[in-house]
Amino acid sequence: MQRGKLVECTVLLVEDDASLRQTIRDVLELEGYRVLTAADGVDGLDLLDREEPNVILLDLMMPRMNGYQFAESLAGRKPAVAIPIILLTADARAPDKAQQVGASAWLHKPFEIDELVSTVERACDDALSGS
Amino acid sequence: METNDMRPRSSFDTPIALDRDVFMRQLITSLSYLNEGILGSDLAGAYVMNTGLSMGAAIEEQYKAFWGIDRPFTLEEYAHVIVDLKQKIRGNFSLVSADPDKVVVQTTSCPFDRLVQRAPSLCFMTSSVFGGIAARNFGYAKVVLHKRIALGDPGCLVTVYLRRTPEAEAAVGKEYAPDVEQASPDIAAQLHLMDRVRELRRALVQNESRWEEVVRGAVEAIALVGPDGAVSYANPSWREMLGVEPGELVGGSLDRLTTPEDQPRLAAAVAGALAGTRAVGEHVRLRHRTGGYREVVLNAGPIRGDHGRLSGAILIFHDVTEQRQAARIKEHLLAAASHEMRTPLAAIRASAELLQRASRRPEGIAPDRIAQWVEIILRETDRLTAFGMDLIDTARVQEGALRLNLERLDIRELAAEAARQAERSDRPNPPLETLVPPTPVWVNGDRQRLQQVVDNLLSNARKYSPAGQQVTLQIVRDAGGAVLRVRDSGIGIPEQDLPHLGTPFFRGSNAAADAYPGIGLGLYLSRAIVEAHGGTLRVESVEGAGTTVTVVLPAADAAG
Questions:
Q1: CB-based contact (8 Å) between A113 and chain B?
Q2: Which of A109, A69, A26 has the alpha carbon at shortest distance from B375?
Q3: Using one digit for the tens of pLDDT, what is the confidence trace for B52-92?
Q4: Could you tell me if residue A101 is inside a domain?
Q5: CA nearest A29 in B: which residue?
Q6: DSSP helix, strand, coil percent of chain A (3-state; round to 5)
Q7: Domain range spanning residue A84?
Q8: Which CATH number fits domain B324-398: 1.10.530.10, 1.10.760.10, 3.30.565.10, 1.10.287.130?
Q9: In b/e form, how buried is each residue of A85-98, taking b as 16+ CB within 10 angstroms?
Q10: Does A20 touch chain B if contact means CB atoms closer than 8 Å?
């Protein structure tokens, strides 16, 4: 089902690994989402200046500016950025990490496509319904 | 089973060779002491024990051997024995007269007043020596004691009848049969006992010293504690393990050597051992004099004294710090490896699922997408394979088992290969500049491993550098050897981290542990490979400005 098509949801994917970045983008685009990609926190912030994604998919381990630093930067912006964050992590302590960066959901690598899609869908619903 | 045979039993097998004169003196000294019930010299006792002879027979044998005769004594010889004995023992007797019928000896300290009513066998010299020897050599002996008549003369006269004359028959005394050993039962028993005591004492000392050697020489730190839990003995290994003098531990408790967390378990193990229960494999930390801690395994057991009564405990501490560290590194390796593998696995899984969906509903999927997903699976699989090999290499390095295939190699070729790979790569790399001399730079090296080092150093340089900033790979030949240098202008390494580089999993303090990719094996392996070549790897860095890694390898000869 291509939920994304009903009301277009834009996802900002911040992930340094090229292969994973491509596959996640392909999955989401096939589901009808619009996907913006950044290879690290710096590029991610740049994109935020120019675009307005509805959901952020955030990796932690990145060079130049990692996921923690990115989230901190977001939190410091004025006006406040209220975009829901989905954390992508290889760490078993995903819930703790999610809390640390203010994420509302997390995905533990490796994940199934269904998991990825349904998590993004939920986040999109929340974002677009204004809750 | 009780036996009336009181002859001394032999317990030593080795015959004793020594100066006869010395021996005789010792033998006789023993005899003189036997009068008072004091047991004499070891050698004499040993001789008697060994031969099963009485003292008198032993003396007789010695004299005969010394004189080289094996027939009965003549009267002169018998008399001479008595005179000689007196001289050797500085004895309290002297020969008065000797004739074929009897020999008369006068003694000055024989406690006659006690003996006058008793059998002459209580006076050992008289019985065994005078009587026994006479009986064996003359076929007859009767020993009679008289108190001296003259007032003021202590002692007694001893008459040894050598022939059964009427006078002999009429006299009151003790008759000796020639074929019976006349050792006094009391003395034989005492000699036997003395011998046993000696033997046991020697065995005990030997045993104790053997066990003491075992405890002293043990690698483990061993402590004995008394029932109150205080240390009564500590072996020398405490010095090696904790830098503590064994003497300092005596009288105190071992509690103060451990951490507050471990104290209850240590105390429980000691208390348990004192109560009779063994504790095996208790892990505790003990503080080294220099402040650090050693991880040890404790085995504690009870010590039992007389009748199995609990009299203390023995504590054996085995230092396992290095093993624990190695185990921790392995655990960390596994955890980090598992973590590291997850991103490639996520890409592979997602790609595979996409291909699966595409195979079910191929419409709407561009063919080049299919090719890309397949490419991702292949690429990430290769990456995981390489990573797996790095893990194995790390394990090999840890165990000192890294093998090299050496060949004569111009290291400029390593730079050329690195440049080729950089061009081929489709990732947004910073440009790679290579600087090489015009002439070959030869080393004896493992091409594959050294390329691995170059790849790793370049990868680190790129990873920790801002995109677009140049990385330089330089090769020179100088007095120190063949030099390979990688320079970047990236985030650099803080000064406090520099000494720790090359430790497995170390990642600098300015790269938050979760934030930078890689588990820090690269530099560790590179250094191990370089050092296996007999070379050195040095890192210089300024935080925020960049890093230079210099590898120096022993140069190979120009010839060839």
A1: yes
A2: A26
A3: 556 677 778 778 877 888 889 999 999 988 888 777 666 67
A4: yes
A5: B365
A6: 45, 20, 35
A7: 6-124
A8: 1.10.287.130
A9: bbbbbbbeebeebb
A10: yes
Look at A60 and B342 and tell me if their CB atoms are within 8 Å.
no
In B, minimum Cα distance to A17 occurs at: B343
pTM (two decimals): 0.54
pLDDT tens digits for range B396-411: 887 778 889 999 999 9
Q: Is the domain covering B407-553 a CATH 3.30.565.10 domain?
A: yes
Minimal CA separation from B363 to chain A, in Å: 12
**CA A47 to centroid of chain Cα atoms:** 13
* CATH fold label, B219-319: Beta-Lactamase (3.30.450)
pLDDT tens per residue, range B100-109: 999 998 876 5
- Do the domain assignments include residue A88? yes
In this predicted model, what pLDDT tens digit does every residue of B263-300 receive, in sequence order? 999 999 999 999 999 989 999 999 999 888 999 999 99
Considering its fold, how many domains does chain A have in total? Answer: 1
The answer to whether the Cα torsion of A25, A28, A30, A34 is positive or negative is negative
Neighbours of A101 (CB within 10 A): 20
A64 close to B (CB below 8 A): yes
A-contacting residues of B 299-358, CB under 8 Å? 339-340, 342-351, 353-354, 357
Say yes or no for a CB contact (<8 Å) between A90 and B464. no
Give the domain CATH number at A20.
3.40.50.2300
What single letter denotes the amino acid at residue A131?
S
> In the structure, what pLDDT confidence band is assigned to residue B171 with cuts at 50, 70 and 90?
confident
